[in-house]
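Late entry, written up from scratch paper. The run itself happened at the end of the previous shift, but nothing got recorded in the book at the time, so transcribing now.
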Amino acid sequence: MYLGGPETDELEQKLDELIQGGTPKLLLNLGETSYLSSAPLAVLIKSLNACEAKGLKIKLCNLDKKMNLVLVITRLVMRFDTYETEEQALQAFKGPQPARATTPAA
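Output as recorded:
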């Protein structure tokens, strides 16, 4: 999917709706996105800023090599939480798992 045309407005409206509604955790799976122009990138940055201001969390997953490179070059990789898979991102929302106490076998 190309992300940079009219669907950018739809993405922005949906993210604004979720953020204004106080959705505490947002996960954007970009696995089917093959191209990301500057317009949706600006939407993602705006959404990240809005989430941070409201204490909400936003994570990205399944970025292809080109999209990841854009985040590295622009240094946005230091602002966005990115994960290789959706499962890893969902697990990260849960936070670190506490260590389990084990009892030694007798």
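The chain has one domain: 2-91.
(Scratch paper discarded after transcription.)
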